[in-house]
Specification:
Blueprint lengths: L1 H18 E4 L2 E4 L1 E3 L5 E12 L2 E10 L6 H7 L3 E7 L3 E2 L1 H15 L2 H15 L6 E2 L3 E7 L3 E6 L2 E6 L2 H12 L6 H7 L4
Antiparallel strand pairs: 1-2, 3-4, 4-5, 5-6, 6-9, 7-8, 9-10, 10-11
Length: 189
């Protein structure tokens, strides 16, 4: 009888492991439902580090898993990135500086000019310091745009396919914010 109870406990704990992934104290669900009702699966997760300090855990969700950046960027399909902050606090100006660097490092001048107004709108959603255990969710909804939420509160939607690709390239582009984070999000770590 006790053996059976122990086996049930082991099986239940294994099922919990299958439904979630954990990194730097952050647990990410293995799948989520998009704004349009599509199931998105956890492609991978990684830690954004700055000067050997963990800043946030980034989790990338896609319709199906892939490690091919070209496939992700060219798909035009729903995706979600959840950024769970683990550092005590990240100041607003540091966040915006990191976003600006990410766009500039991965886009040419014509693209930056074309999406400039949307980039400025995006920066406006980062209007205060972010504390540990707070999170942002960035979700691309085809034909609608990129939804930005903070701690489950919708901040706004930024239209445009070109913007969502440029945003993804901050993590997955040729000059990613953090190479380890990129590998983690691609599930190749």
């Amino acid at each position: 009888m006790i053996k059976n109870i122990l086996w049930v406990g082991v099986l239940l704990s294994l099922s919990t492991l299958v439904s979630a992934a954990r990194l730097s104290g952050v647990t990410s669900e293995e799948q989520v439902t998009s704004e349009q009702g599509q199931v998105l699966v956890l492609n991978g997760m990684g830690v954004r580090e700055k000067f050997w300090v963990d800043v946030y855990v980034g989790s990338l969700y896609l319709g199906e898993k892939t490690a091919r950046v070209e496939t992700i960027l060219g798909a035009g399909k729903a995706w979600r990135i959840r950024m769970d902050f683990v550092h005590d606090e990240v100041e607003q100006n540091k966040l915006i500086e990191a976003w600006r660097d990410g766009f500039v490092n991965n886009q040419d001048d014509p693209t930056l000019k074309a999406i400039n107004a949307r980039m400025e709108q995006f920066y406006g959603f980062f209007d205060s310091t972010v504390l540990a255990k707070e999170y942002y969710v960035l979700e691309y909804v085809p034909a609608k745009g990129t939804r930005i939420t903070r701690n489950n509160k919708l901040l706004g939607v930024i239209p445009g396919e070109e913007f969502q690709v440029a945003l993804l390239e901050i993590w997955l582009g040729k000059v990613p914010a953090d190479k380890g984070l990129k590998r983690g999000m691609l599930g190749v770590q």
